[in-house]
Amino acid sequence: MADAGDAGLRYPAIRSPDISPDEWAPAERAALDAINRMVAGAESLERIVDFLFETTRDIFPCDRISVAFIEEEGHRVRSYYTVADYAPIHLKNGYAEDLADSSLERVIERGTPRIIGDLEAYAREHPDSKSTRLILSEGVRSNLTCPLTVDGRKVGLLFRSSRRPNSYGDREVRLHLAVAERLAQAVEKAYRIEQLEAANTAYTEMLGFVSHELKAPIASLVSNAELVAGGYLGELNDRQRERLERMMARGRHLLRMVGEYLDLARVEGRDLEPEFRLVEDFEGAVIGPALETAGSVIEENEMRVERDVLESPLAVECDPDLLRIVMTNLLTNAAKYGRGGGRIRVQANSGPDVLEVGVFNEGPGFSPESRAKLFRKFSRLNEPELKKKDGTGVGLYTCWRLIRAHGGTITADSEPGKWAEFSFRIPQPPG
Question: Which domain holds residue 153?
């Protein structure tokens, strides 16, 4: 036992439960076995902590349990989840504090538990501790804390609190450590998942912001170049016109890239819930606008477009805004990766319970081995003829996400060296 003070602050020199299974009381052993099973099968850390609270509160004092993550290379701690048998909770989930010069810092550095037997006295000795004031305002009077360790790494902290002072001794410390051993892996898993989700959110927000900020200036550059190429500032010689045409082609390519990244940011930045409505003319509402948007790429590659809509007007249930993104991507890909001067064919048909749409192009196609990579995010094919083409690797992934959001499927087929075709099917309500 060390560092006892007026507040009953101490760090028991106990680093593991140090009790054989036979030495636990039957109720304690049953609780630990139940926690083992719950940790192995639970879907979330929150459910485990709720279960832990209910399972152990009868075997030693507990009015509140909280789990926190250790962040910023051990310099900061953040409350992740709390459950208590009272309300309100003032030290809320998400609360964070620096660890420097705190009693928790010693818990982490030494890997030993901490007991505060009298939180009111501790608050008088540490008047700057905001977390102590908050938990005191909840009525808590004593606290037991231990680190959560995975493979020697401190990943979190487990707090157990009581509304009575001096509730915890060495027996409670050992039981608390036994619980922490079982909980640590679940905390590590939850933390890593949260880090990945936060990183993905930050990446999506940055992607959308940067793309949005680039769109207007690039569009302005292309428009100004078109004005100059049109002779509004005087006649151009052949060399000047050729340079301007290259500049405009690159600018349009950048605009298409920006558009694809903006679509990706939309897709990944929110839960996709298509706004279904009856579209009485699918060709006019979706195919036509998509052909217009992809028109510059089709013209650059001198492709011929054939439309094969088996019923006109074709009435379907869908979100036309989202399907215009799909069609634009498929048509742009068909023109970009097709054979210059070749043919693009757009087919659409609505059966009794499904909308079927296909975009076919003559060109190099792709090998059977490459098919599995087509709808992956940022994936580019290694086909020699295709690698020469500029691309972001997000257009087909966006199509896949949008068709999935419609409850449909999207597929690709090809005869290498001759053609490629992308098709999607969307279920339709019974007519």
Answer: 9-191
DSSP string, 232-249: TTS---HHHHHHHHHHHH
Query: Is 330 strand, coil or helix?
Result: helix
Dist. CA 404–CA 66, nearest whole Å:
39
Across the strands, what pairs with 316?
A: 279
Number of helices (H), then strands (E), in the chain: 13, 14
Q: Which CATH number do you get for residue 161? A: 3.30.450.40
User: Would you say residue 1 lies in a domain?
Assistant: no
Domain termination residue (choose one: 268, 295, 311): 268
**Residues in the chain, total:** 431
Whether 2 maps to a domain, the answer reads no
Number of domains in the chain: 3
Same domain, 155 and 207: no
pLDDT tens-place string over residues 329-347? 899 999 988 998 999 999 9
CA-nearest of 162, 180, 151, 183 to 15 is 180
Comparing C-alpha atoms, which of 326, 317, 321 is closest to residue 401? 326
Give the tokens for residue 1: 């036992």
Tokens of 175: 């039981």
Residues 263 and 411 in one domain: no
Residue 388: inside a domain, yes or no?
yes
Q: What is the DSSP string of 342-371?
A: -EEEEEEEE-SSEEEEEEEEES----GGGG
Query: Mapping DSSP to helix (H, G, I), strand (E, B) and coil, where does residue 149 land?
Result: strand
pLDDT tens for residues 213-261? 777 788 788 788 888 888 888 888 888 888 888 888 778 777 777 777 7
